[in-house]
Amino acid sequence: MSSPNTAPTEPVSALDLEYDGANLVFVVGCPRSGTTWVQRLLASHTNIRTGQESDVFDIYVGPQLQAWRRELEVSSSGRGGVGLGCYLDDSEFVRILKGYTLELLRPMIGPLAPGEIFVEKTPSHVLYVPEIATLLPAARFVHVLRDPRDTVASLLSASRSWGMTWAPRTARQATGMWVQHVEAARRAQFQLAPGKFFELRYEALHADTTGELRRLTTWLGLEWAEADLQRAVAANSAETARRGGGTAIPLGGAFGKVSGPVVKEPPGFVRKAQAGSWREDLSVTDRLWVWKVGRSTMARVGYAWPRPW
Predict the structure, then answer these.
(1) With contact defined as beta carbons under 8 Å apart, do 179 and 33 qualify?
(2) Could you give the CA distance from residue 156 to residue 223 in angstroms, rounded to a whole number?
(3) How far apart are CA 296 and CA 56, in angstroms?
């Protein structure tokens, strides 16, 4: 149901510059906040397609647009500047970059049939929401927000195993990552047009998965029979995911040729999948760092923590 190649329609090309991203939904948030769970739940819907994290904006496109904006700011002093701003104006650069972006997105959005949505899940795309909105003003964003204490515990666990190449290794660094991503989401919430931002709390989803998933799909404008929705919830339980089951996430391109047609998560990817397990997972020192680095942001987003014990 989640294969992105089941609906042969006209592909999006660099010439389709009017494309605004209306059928694109970005699932974002701090890593280890439950974004993969949300992606798999949504991918169970017959009108939703998805795929592995693309990093298209946090690695390839977003930094280019940010660099362009910085160059323009420097040259606005009246002394001129160096770079592509000597040859292109802003509208020209954005047009070229959008064409490039659409070519990168073509394997995702090109095969979509009318009424279908592509769910792109790269957590750190939350750091590039303004850049995405510049190029795709009708795209929507689902921010998965999780208690930083549980998020930090999960990040630290990942850093000792399958995520050692990217996950922060100290509670101080992990909390900083959470603050960075959550503050970016807070800014995006007020920068985006109405109806483009949906926040989903991990704890609420854990407590009432069916109800929260219904709320999300209603926001997306999708109908979902109750029996089918409940089957999706059951099929994507934490225990099923630990055994390698759940809704399949397609994998293509060069990596698909090596690893096969679906994503295979590493052992330990699904950990406890609980709310509040940080009480057993975090040391006293870890708690102190989470409190010191994160308490202001925690209070602003509903996780007030007056004292770290």
Answers:
(1) no
(2) 38
(3) 31
CA distances from 84 to 58, 64, 81 (A): 21, 11, 9
Mark out the alpha helices in 5-89 (DSSP H runs). Answer: 35-43, 62-75
The rounded distance, in Å, linking the Cα atoms of 247 and 1 is: 8
Question: Which residues touch 154 (CB under 8 Å, ≥6 apart)?
Answer: 32, 271
pLDDT in tens, 128-175: 999 999 999 999 999 999 999 999 999 999 999 999 999 999 999 999
pLDDT tens-place string over residues 207-263: 999 999 999 999 999 999 999 999 999 999 999 998 888 999 999 999 999 999 999
Q: Which CATH class is domain 24-300?
A: alpha beta
Buried b (16+ CB within 10 A) or exposed e, 131-144: bbbebbeebbbbbb
Convert the pLDDT of each residue in 20-67 to its tens digit.
Answer: 999 999 999 999 999 999 999 999 999 999 999 999 999 999 999 999
Domains of the chain: which residue ranges? 24-300
pTM of the model: 0.92
Q: Alpha carbon of 253 to those of 54, 203, 257, 259, 260: distances in Å?
A: 11, 35, 7, 10, 10
**Count of alpha carbons within 13 angstroms of residue 111, beta-carbon side:** 15
The rounded distance, in Å, linking the Cα atoms of 303 and 297 is 8
**Cβ-Cβ contacts under 8 Å for 277 (sequence gap 6 or more):** 150, 153
Distance from C-alpha of 210 to C-alpha of 281, rounded to nearest angstrom: 28
DSSP states of 83-105: SGGGT--HHHHHHHHHHHHHHHH
Residue listed under structure tokens 């995702």 = 108
